[in-house]
Each structure stands twice: as structure tokens, then as C-alpha cells.
Design goal:
The chain is mostly helical and 396 residues long. It is 52% helix and 5% strand. α7 runs parallel beside α8 (176-185), α9 packs across α17 and α10 crosses α17 (352-373). The structure holds acetyl coenzyme *A.
């Protein structure tokens, strides 16, 4: 365990911190706590090698996982560490299907929300109202499965409320992802769309200690419950620099309009210090392997014109970002072709961020169980840069 991390006690005390006044470049005296930013802690769920562009779930490379496993099996791999059929690992499909029905109290909460509530906000509210999912610490595996299983029907119901229609009931014959598409679209989804969305769910199922997963683990570290932790995670995921990026990608492509306008639009946006959504990542120094895979998967289902516009946008964006920071080039991230894929499978934009969150419920669940198995209060060290202690003088 990391030294700074292990210094933090259950009460969050940092009394061991060394205090050493020093002067900053601006001439302001700084008091350092003596604790430097450190690794979050140990995790054995997802391995990320940002320098080599490698991602593994429980040791299996993401390229193999997405080729061989659907979402339910991926969730089992993340949760139990083994592939279904391996050792005592079980197929989660039937279990998840049997947990889809929403309790009446939860239905009432959904009905009470204003129809204009964006689905991501309604989802966050619904999760915190999942009383029976978890109001006690520590969360159990069964509560985690309830969270994964109930979330897609919740999002589908919220979507139908927002467009003033009725969601069809869950179809027990359909798998987790196909049932979500069915409940949103009201028609039996074609296999190519189900396959594309299933791959998206697998690729987005976990990504280490991302901002939302950190939020979840921080809440659990205080011995709070799963419902509170998952709603905190949803709040973090909603932001445009995290799970809020996919709809922004399509807004960008719409604003550009045609291939001829790509260069002018990107140059103007960067000159105005705007961000190009779907590019850059705090961890990867080469292309995110999920972006590589999603480029291919999106091409299979996207309208050719849309895909061609996205490709041209990507080409110019990468060139301009590299020119601006040759020392730190940015690469395509998971959200760029992820957004193109979500559009191609017919999901409305307001469901892009909730869909990212639905995929991540498997990862959040695995992290919840890992956190409580080795729980320590998460209290990261800060660096105080305010004034040093000074005398209180009257009359000032
Ligand atoms: N477009 C334009 N400029 C960018 C981009 C981008 N996509 N990414 C980084 N930069 C620039 C910033 O403007 C900043 O410039 P400055 O130093 O002149 O102010 C510089 O690069 C450093 O920016 P940071 O945000 O500090 O860089 P970091 O690598 O930590 O950022 C991040 C990662 C937040 C994802 C960023 O690349 C970004 O905002 N991308 C667009 C949003 C996006 O796609 N988010 C989803 C990412 S995937 C996920 O869920 C985390």
C-alpha cells in the first residue's frame, strides 16, 4: 500500500503531516502538509497502461474481452474476477433478468419527477431513492446486482416520461442490453444494433479510478451506503469533461455540418480556447485502445456520411492539437466514436450520458465490493498555499 495513503486514519487525521513553511515563486509563503499527491490505493479490477495504450479487465486485454464476452459476462468478470464457466463463476444473465422489475415505491418516485427532468438527473435521483438497494453499510453483491439490473428500466422510463410516452415492460427473453434498447425504442432491436451497443457497454464497463469511480469509493470509504455512493458517482459522471462528453461530440459534428467546414470550425474553436470533445485523456499518452475498437465498431453501423465527417474531424483535430502541444499530443478518446456509435444505434442524445453510466454500473459495483473489502477512509493530502499563521491585530 502507498505510504501516503496508509498514513490516513479512519478519522481522516493528518496529524503526522510535516509542516514546513516556504516561499512560492509569487513571494507568498506556503505551508506544505508534507503529503504529496499519491496513488489512490490498490485495485485489481482494471489495469491501465497509459503509455502503451493497454487496458485489461481482471488481467484480460480489452480486445479479447470485447471479442469473446457480452455485457453480462463482462459484469461477472469484473465482479468475481473470473470468466463465466471458470471455477465457481456464474452466468449473471438470468440473475439480472430476474431483478429488472422496479419496486412500486421507486415507480412512484419516477412518476413524481417533473417530465422535463433530464434523464441523467432523474437517474441520479432514482438511484438515491433505491432504498432497498442499499441504505446500510457495507453493500452486498446482491445489492450491486439490483443496481445493475434496475438501472436500464429506470432510464428507459425516465426517457419515455420526458417525451410523454409509455415505456414498454421489460422483455424477459431479451438480454440486458437488448432489453434496454427495446424499452427505449419500443421495437425489437435489430441484431447489428444490439451487437454494437453491447460492445459499447463492454468497453465502457470500467476504467479504473476514474472521477466517478473515485467519487463512489470516497463515499463508501466513510461507511456510507451504495445508493449514496452510486448517486455521487452519477453526479461526477454527468460533467462534460467525463461522461457528459458524448452528446457534446455530436453537437460539434452538427455545428460543423459538412466536411468542407471542418478546418475552419476547428481553428475557430481552438482560437477561442474551446475544447474539442472526444479528444484527450488524463491517463493515455497514446491512443486509448477503446477508441481504436470503437472506430471500427461505429463504422459498421453509422451512416457513411456521418462516419466520413467524423473521420475528417478526427484527422484535423489530431493534427491541430499536436501542433499546439507537440510535447503533449492529444489522442482520440473513447467518447468520440462512442458518440457516433450511440447515434447509429438510434439512442437519443439525452440518453448518451445515462447510457455511459448504465455501462459503468458493473465497474462501480466491482469497485464498491473492492472498496469495502479493504476499507480505509479516503482523505487525499492537500497542499496549503495560503498565508502562514499570522498574529490577530486589533483595529485593522
Ligand atoms: N481540446 C482542446 N484543448 C485541449 C483538449 C481538447 N480536447 N484537451 C486538452 N486540451 C488543452 C487544454 O485546453 C489545456 O490548454 P492550456 O494549457 O492552454 O490551458 C491543456 O490542453 C491541458 O488541459 P487539461 O484539461 O489540463 O489536460 P488533461 O490531459 O488533464 O485533460 C481532458 C484531459 C479533461 C479529458 C481534456 O483532454 C478534455 O477536456 N477533453 C475534452 C473533453 C472530453 O472528451 N472528455 C472525455 C474524456 S474521457 C473521460 O471520461 C475522462
Amino acid at each position: 500500500m502507498d505510504k501516503a495513503f496508509s498514513q490516513l486514519t479512519e478519522e481522516g487525521s493528518i496529524t503526522e503531516a510535516r509542516v514546513s513553511p516556504r516561499t512560492s515563486k509569487q513571494g507568498v509563503a506556503e505551508v506544505s502538509t508534507g503529503l504529496e499527491p499519491s496513488a489512490f490505493g490498490d485495485t485489481s479490477i482494471t489495469g491501465i497502461d497509459g503509455a502503451r495504450g493497454m487496458l485489461t479487465y481482471r488481467g484480460y486485454r480489452i480486445e479479447d474481452v470485447v471479442r469473446h464476452l457480452g455485457y453480462e459476462a463482462t459484469a461477472a468478470l469484473l465482479l468475481w474476477g473470473t470468466r463465466p464457466g471458470e471455477g465457481s463463476a456464474r452466468d449473471l444473465g438470468p440473475d439480472l433478468r430476474s431483478r429488472r422489475a422496479l419496486p412500486t415505491d421507486l415507480e412512484r418516485v419516477l412518476e413524481a419527477l417533473p417530465a422535463v427532468t433530464p434523464p441523467i438527473d432523474g437517474f441520479r435521483t432514482a438511484v438515491s431513492a433505491m432504498d432497498d438497494v442499499a441504505r446500510v453499510y457495507p453493500p452486498t453483491a446482491s445489492e450491486c446486482l439490483d443496481l445493475i439490473a434496475r438501472s436500464p428500466p429506470v432510464v428507459a422510463r425516465l426517457y419515455h416520461r420526458s417525451v410523454r410516452s409509455n415505456a414498454p415492460p421489460p422483455d424477459p427473453k431479451l438480454g440486458h442490453v437488448a432489453n434496454f434498447l427495446w424499452m427505449v425504442q419500443g421495437t425489437v432491436p435489430p441484431p447489428d444494433r444490439v451487437r454494437a451497443l453491447e460492445r459499447y457497454f463492454v468497453l465502457l464497463a470500467d476504467h479504473g479510478i476514474s472521477a466517478s469511480t473515485l467519487a463512489l469509493r470516497i463515499v463508501l470509504s466513510t461507511r456510507s451506503d451504495l445508493a449514496s455512493a452510486a448517486s455521487a458517482a452519477l453526479g461526477a459522471l454527468k460533467g462534460p469533461l467525463h461522461g457528459g462528453a458524448p452528446p457534446e461530440v455530436l453537437e460539434m459534428l452538427d455545428a460543423v455540418g459538412s466536411i468542407d467546414h471542418v478546418e475552419t470550425w476547428i481553428d475557430r474553436t481552438l482560437a477561442d480556447r474551446g475544447r474539442l470533445f472526444g479528444f484527450g485523456h488524463p491517463t493515455y499518452r497514446v491512443e486509448d485502445p477503446r477508441a481504436t475498437l470503437l472506430r471500427g465498431f461505429a463504422k459498421e453501423v453509422a451512416a457513411p456520411n456521418r462516419f466520413a465527417l467524423a473521420q475528417r474531424f478526427e484527422e484535423v483535430a489530431l493534427a491541430r492539437l499536436a501542433e499546439r502541444r507537440p510535447d503533449q499530443p492529444r489522442f482520440t478518446n473513447v467518447d468520440f466514436y462512442g458518440a457516433v456509435l450511440l447515434e447509429a444505434v438510434g439512442l437519443p442524445r439525452e440518453l448518451f450520458t445515462p447510457t455511459f453510466a448504465l455501462a459503468r454500473t458493473a465497474g462501480w459495483s466491482a469497485h464498491a465490493l473492492e472498496q469495502v473489502a479493504q476499507n480505509r477512509l479516503v482523505r487525499p493530502p492537500e497542499r496549503y498555499v495560503g498565508p502562514p499563521p499570522k498574529p490577530w491585530s486589533d483595529g485593522v
